[in-house]
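Morning F.,

Quick status update on the modeling queue. The single chain you submitted on Monday has been processed. Sequence for confirmation:
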Amino acid sequence: MSTGPTFSFATTADEVAAAFAAEIKGKNILVTGTSLKGIGFETARAMAKYANRVIITGYNAERLKLSEEAIKKEIPQANIYPLVLDLSSFASVRKAAAEINAQPEPLHVLINNAASSFVDFKLTVDGLETQLATDHVGPFLLTKLLAPKLLASATPMYTPRVVFVSSPAEGFGTGVDFDALEHPDPAKYSKQLAYGQAKSANVLTAIELSKRSKGKINAYSLSPGLIFTNILEKEDSIPTLQSIGILGEDKKPNTEHPWKTLPQGAATTIAAAFDPRLNDKPGAYLDDSTVANHLIAPHSSDPAKAEKLWNITEKIIGEAFVF
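Structure tokens below.
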């Protein structure tokens, strides 16, 4: 990457936001999954100091209100717009997108941060497995529906961005099981592998979105690092996290792994959303706020898999994603 601020494992969201304050100024941003004690909240909070408008989302209106109040308490001038959104429901995604599309303001950045992680097998109202629906299909549909709003923000000097928060779990297993995506089977289900498939899908979608938009939208994916968020405190997730060595028997973080704080965990998302050095690197994968394409598993960077995933996801949502 060209000269500019240098980031590391320890860099915080506030530090990255301050470094790119000029880029964030005047921008309207939507961040999914912004509950307190999560990296989406920390991402929104750090950007709210400089942004024109930050749309925060969550499926629980009461928790969404708490996030809004917490940001405004710290940053009274912040322009926060709460949006109820359940990514596991096509109807909810369509309703939320329609609400944003009906507003006059353009949308400069969409950050697909929300995730369902390591949960028991359950079908959504649309007949999909919950993790793949919430982490991949829902965000794909949301991005598709908001694409016109994103494209409207483009100028000769600015290309809108879409950010997918992935995870090192994108390397789990052999990548997306396309049959399981279309035809969920509880007998073949693994919490760990399903999460890995969803995170692999995030990386593949960023690559394919950048390719298909032909320069009209720049998409990026990233690893936020290992962070003790509210996801790791969910009872149905704990046994799986213990089995793969993330949590110890005491349900506390395994200190053999390098853990980030919430502010450190949200830093890379903001870099992906605003670092101007990424303008000529569409589809890139970031780690520690820096391009790290070498870390992606082969099954998460395969162009053929990216194209196949895109086509199957269009089939699932029942409409084509056109630019």
